[in-house]
Design brief:
The protein contains 10 helices and 12 strands. The two termini are about 15 Å apart.
């Protein structure tokens, strides 16, 4: 918790720092990469730097963390910290990098605030930073220790690629070295690292979409972003037999074992964790009550639909409902026009899992809360600025 001397300072300055932090973080990253350009080679995404999402994520996480310390001084925002820690470990972030971040972040803060940054304010916000940093370091060390190996990346060979709907491709990889692979859980992701056209390595995280418990195979389904840098290389240049680097599996959007009614709601390419969960539950012969909901632009745009429908056919207590914005509705499954409506699918004891575009998750989360589902039973995954629900 915050010290007694820092708490009133943070409480008084949080509105100012919170309002300024999104302007401070671009300066921080400029300083960081000027001093350590190697961090852009396989750790930080230059696309996310260009479009500003990385700056938003950092600014938002600091503001949310500080706000939580004020509003709930006896606890930490564990959900937000765990999610950040899983992303960090999939990238190989280590304890020694936190002082580097601190140095350049606080230099940017000092430049932005000028004479308004007194020693008292600097000390209080330093305390906030190190409380957050040490909490993350502890979680990350635990996550690293749970893996079957001590490497960040191992080499995997592309064994198969399958064209899916809506400009999506499923890539299946097999081990290309003798590193013992960790077993994944449905809903987890891996980082994919590979060189871009100029030779600089970039990295993206993708949810595993196939048989996640098979350590001899890693499968991801990737939608093409025509304006991006990474996915065009994967789609257009990655051939069967090529080698890429994959991280160990991470992520906390994993199915709980409580046995409570399970609702999985997805949209678009966000169906990947749902597809993996259904495959896993079907392989186990699960009889759990399961409601699967999916929304898409149209039926033919739904990636992994055949895999998901086949898995559902093996789950006796599972139901599927779909919504499509346009196009003809299929007769083989329950389908409606328009946007997803959870009103008939939720009970107060449901555990709800969400994955899809941010506006979709905002809307569906609101429906779940209105139905009486506790916030702690609503789980989500988003690859981007990651504080939209943390407050």
């Amino acid at each position: 918790m915050l010290s007694t001397q820092s708490r009133p300072v943070i409480e008084a300055t949080l509105p100012i720092i919170g309002a300024r932090i999104s302007s401070i973080t671009p300066n921080f990253y400029d300083r960081l990469f000027a001093a350590h350009p190697q961090l852009l080679d396989g750790i930080f995404s230059r696309s996310n730097q260009k479009n500003g999402t990385q700056q938003q994520a950092l600014a938002g996480s600091i503001a949310v963390f500080a706000t939580h310390l004020i509003n709930s001084p006896e606890t930490l925002p564990e959900t937000m910290l765990a999610r950040i820690a899983h992303k960090h470990t999939s990238l190989g972030v280590v304890e020694e990098q936190y002082p580097i971040v601190y140095e350049h972040l606080f230099a940017a803060i000092a430049e932005d605030l000028g004479d308004a940054l007194t020693q008292e304010i600097a000390d209080a916000w330093s305390e906030v930073y190190w409380l957050m940093a040490h909490a993350l370091i502890k979680i990350e060390k635990g996550l690293y220790s749970q893996q079957a190996n001590d490497v960040v990346y191992s080499q995997w060979k592309l064994a198969e690629r399958t064209e899916e709907a809506n400009n999506s491709v499923t890539f299946s990889f097999e081990p290309a070295d003798d590193i013992v692979a960790s077993t994944a859980k449905a809903g987890q992701f891996v980082s994919v690292r590979m060189p871009m056209t100029d030779g600089l390595r970039q990295v993206r995280q993708y949810t595993l979409s196939g048989d996640v418990e098979n350590t001899a195979r890693r499968t991801v389904t990737v939608k093409l972003d025509v304006d991006g840098e990474f996915t065009p290389v994967m789609h257009n240049s990655l051939k069967v037999g090529d080698i890429v680097e994959l991280s160990n599996p991470y992520g906390d959007l994993t199915i709980d074992e409580s046995g409570a009614p399970l609702v999985i709601a997805t949209a678009g390419i966000g169906c990947t964790p749902s597809a993996a969960a259904l495959s896993t539950l079907a392989a186990r012969g699960s009889t759990r009550k399961l409601t699967v909901l999916h929304a898409d632009q149209e039926y033919t745009a739904w990636p992994l639909r055949e895999q998901m429908i086949e898995s559902l056919s093996k789950l006796p207590q599972a139901t599927l409902s779909t919504w499509f914005e346009r196009g003809e509705l299929p007769e083989r499954i329950e389908a409606k026009s328009g946007y997803m409506d959870l009103s008939d699918s939720l009970t107060a004891d449901s555990h709800v899992y969400l994955c899809g575009p941010l506006p979709f998750m905002h809307a569906v989360r609101g429906q779940a809360l209105a139905a009486g589902v506790p916030a702690q039973h609503i789980h989500y995954e988003v690859f981007g600025p990651d504080v939209w629900l943390a407050a």
